[in-house]
Amino acid sequence: MEAVPNVSEGGQSEVLRELVAAAGAGDAHLLDWSADPSHNRSVFTLAGSADGLAAAVLRLAGVAVRRVDLRRHRGTHPRMGAVDVVPFVPLGDTPMGDCVDLAHRVGRALAERFGIPVYWYEEAALDDRRRRLEAIRRGQFEGLAARMREPGWRPDCGPPTPHPSAGASAVGARAPLIAFNVNLTTDDVAAARRIAGRIRERDGGLPGVKALGIRLRHRGIAQVSTNLVDYRRTSLETLVDAVTREADALGVKVGGTELVGLVPADALPPSGVERLRIAGFTPDRILDVRLRRAAGCPSTGGVT
């Protein structure tokens, strides 16, 4: 299985070193990690057995709960918890049900060990209203206490009130997701938000696409930040083309793209990745390559 925990810290190098050390210790393989100071968020990609992943997530959570205080946290990415979201993803022939079981197990452990309220989402959800992460995270950390008092929004496990500094966590099971950001050559966040609204599925845009328009203050640009939740319904090529087309209509340009985490090999264009304009892309960013390396198998190469 794969786990992709997201922690609400993206700038403090000492804290990031502790998080990486915690994620990389033990039996699970730390395939990749990245952090962004504007999003103020870090993303870790791990693979291993259920026991190995559970232990890694709990070690990571121990550091996050101790070192991340959302009362002082500022960033462009929506968040409600220090350990904001922990999805488990089946690899190979692993059934989704195994990831659901692991999500419930880890969610209960987070609640018992750290006093964090936990919501189960996507395939692990026990209530259809909680399948979508954005529904759970509405109001973010600042609105969490009021949210939990609303009818039907008591956490699935853990205390009925937020952890004072670590908020709440969403733990779930889902299919592979590609986090993919498109940078504009302007700092006009209104343009990025208009583009996001036109391409995301919930507003009638591309199937399987979630999108937000944000400003990256440390870089002086606006960004269309997307999650491609089903790359078989909408390809990366289609996504880039749509953002470029909408940007052109607004008189702004695309300056390049960013991949957050790893990408499955079959999500890449058969003709090559150049037209995706991914900054710093190498075959090392391909999930299949990292998995083969973790298993001690030689890379077959061939992807450029």
Helix share, percent = 25-40%
| Distance separating the two termini | 26 Å
Strand content: 15-25%
What ranges have pLDDT less than 50 throughout 5 or more consecutive residues? Answer: 300-304
Number-wise, the strands total 11
Number of helical regions: 8
The gross shape turns out to be: globular
What is the element string, with H for helices and E for strands?
Answer: EEHEEHEHEHHEEHEEHEH
Structural class: alpha+beta
Radius of gyration: 19 Å
**Average residue pLDDT:** 94
The main sheet comes to: 7 strands, mixed
How is this structure best described in words?
By secondary structure, the protein is an alpha+beta fold. 31% of the residues lie in helices and 22% in strands. It contains eight helices and eleven strands. The chain has helices spanning 13-24, 50-67, 96-114, 133-136, 144-149, 189-199, 236-250, 287-294; strands at 2-3, 6-7, 29-36, 41-47, 83-89, 118-122, 169-173, 178-184, 209-216, 221-228, 254-260. The radius of gyration is 19 Å and the shape is globular. Residues 300-304 have low confidence and may be disordered.
